[in-house]
Amino acid sequence: MKGEEGPVQQPGWREAATRLLAALEAVLRALGATLLATLFLVVMAAVVRRYILGGGFVWSDELAIWLHVALIATGAPLAVTGALAMRLDVVVRLLPSGQRRLADALAGGIAVHGALVLALGGANVALLVGGTSTVLGLPEWLRFAVFALGGGLTALVLTLRAALDRGWRDALAALLLGACFYALAQLSTGLVLATPSLAAALLAGSGLLLGAPLPLALLAGVSIAGAFGGLLPEPAIVQNTVAGVSKFLLLAIPFFLWAGELLTSGGLAERLVRFAAALVGHRRAGLAQTALVSSVLFSGASGSSVANAAFGAKVMAPTLVARGYPPAHAAAIVAGVSMLDNIIPPSIAFLLLATATNLSVGSLLVGGFVAGGVLAVALAIGIHLTVRNVVDAAPKASPRERVSSLIGALPAIGLGVVVVIGIRFGVVTVTEASALAVTYALVACLLLRSLSGRGILAALRSTATEAAAIGLLIGASAPFAFLLALDRVSDVMAGLVTGLGGGPYAVMLLANLVLLVAGLFLDIGAAILLLAPLLLPVAVAAGLDPIQFGVILVVNLMIHGLTPPLGILVYVVSGIMRVPAGAVFRAVLPLLGVLLVALAVLSLGAAAWPSRAPSSLALWLKALF
């Protein structure tokens, strides 16, 4: 009988764990969707009160920030185990099975360590913090308690996921390693480093190479720095994390993501494709050029390169393959043109940059238009030169067909126009514009009857998870960036620049080299949040215009959406199309070449124009041409 009982116990345990994990994830998705919907209603109520009825709600901004914090905290368990976990598993997959198992355990331990920092550190801060919000009247400890809860649930979800994927012994090993790492971080080793951020970078980098989720690796790295003389105790880590996401500007990110999701789900994005085809479909490589123009148009409504890449992989890529494009080449075209979404406004990357550096969002939008135009021309040339053995030119559209497709695309085009003009001319704030974008997309889809209530809820759930992943990365980057500032790493960068001459060309060259190397190993968002505060003061001291430098920084890092080993845009497209990522990385090389040439043109133009002159579209065009 004992021999018969053994095989039955394991499936029973697995079934119970699967049910628990599925139920927990379903509750978290529903809670995230509810928080995002409530957040949207609060912001829209404030917009209506301010611009239609006059005046405003005193409590709306702070309540919106608190809801955003709760959205990130409750979505953290889904963010670190889902498709947007920002894991680098390329190195681990090359290891033999035995070494891969050890690497998985170490990565799991580092991830658990980061989750424990949120859980226990958040609980510690919640017990220490007193007082109430002057506007809401709520106790201040709630903001930290929700992160403590999110950290605890993250550790639980990580353990359950590891148990289902690799077995309960490996899951317990990772949990034990995480507890040991956490305990080590609380000790004083007696070894004091001149720059404790070096220890943080080493642990975070090791976690990244082993395949740990990047946000948790960053938190674990900052935590371990305390054992080597770091001046950021655990309560301060959590306080910095919460402060990093407690900014009203960041509320625009989930709203722009939701608007883009609604456009895609509601079929408005496909109308943009038809309009693009009417414009350029008759040219050489007409379908590939259509993908490029569609991406430019979609950029004005989405702001998310990942969303555009997913849309292109589902809509454009199958048509490209059917027209004779090799699958890897089709995937490379879709991934390459998708990088424009975070350059052409509205851009989530620019929102992150403005958050990290306090640069003007409106001025960054102007620079994004210029840079996006240069990059689009470069991609058009690259596509024209690389598509040789495919005949896909469609008959030239008649003027009536072009007008008809334009009218069909106007609802989607109008969204981008309203958002960008509203922000650029100060009619509304960025966050208000993003909420209006959601309203616009909802009304347009409902009027056109292209989206059902079920589709809206599905878009809401997926957006909440994606927004939580981005928000968690922003929060985890905040204490790491603060530690770099404490260690005066920017002074080291300035000294290196001085050694190269300290002029604008030297600074631009050094900055691009640093960003090109860092972008190979850092997520785009993390690289912006960590490196922009370090490089921008050096650039300004050298006479570079801060807006132009910020735009070039984003362009440089967005190119890394196409480079191994991270290459998030390549992985998104290859995953949906089921094409090996390695083949797509090889196929995208010609497009990478023209993008690097465009980056050099933009960099030379920025270095040639001093920061004494005001940043504007006309001045940058003058510098370039």
Short précis:
The chain has 625 residues and is mostly helical. It is built from 27 helices and no strands.
Overview of the structural elements:
This protein is mainly α. It folds into 2 domains: 13-246, no CATH class; 250-451 and 487-624, no CATH class. Helix content is 76%, strand content 0%. It has 27 helices and no strands. The protein has helices at 2-53, 60-79, 90-93, 97-128, 141-166, 168-185, 197-210, 214-225, 234-245, 252-265, 268-280, 286-299, 305-322, 327-338, 348-357, 361-386, 399-424, 430-447, 453-486, 489-499, 504-518, 524-541, 546-559, 568-577, 581-587, 589-608, 617-624. The longest helix has 52 residues, at 2-53. The radius of gyration is 24 Å and the shape is globular. The protein starts with a helix and ends with a helix.
Features of the shown structure:
about 625 residues, mainly alpha, 2 domains, about 0% strand, disordered N terminus, disordered C terminus
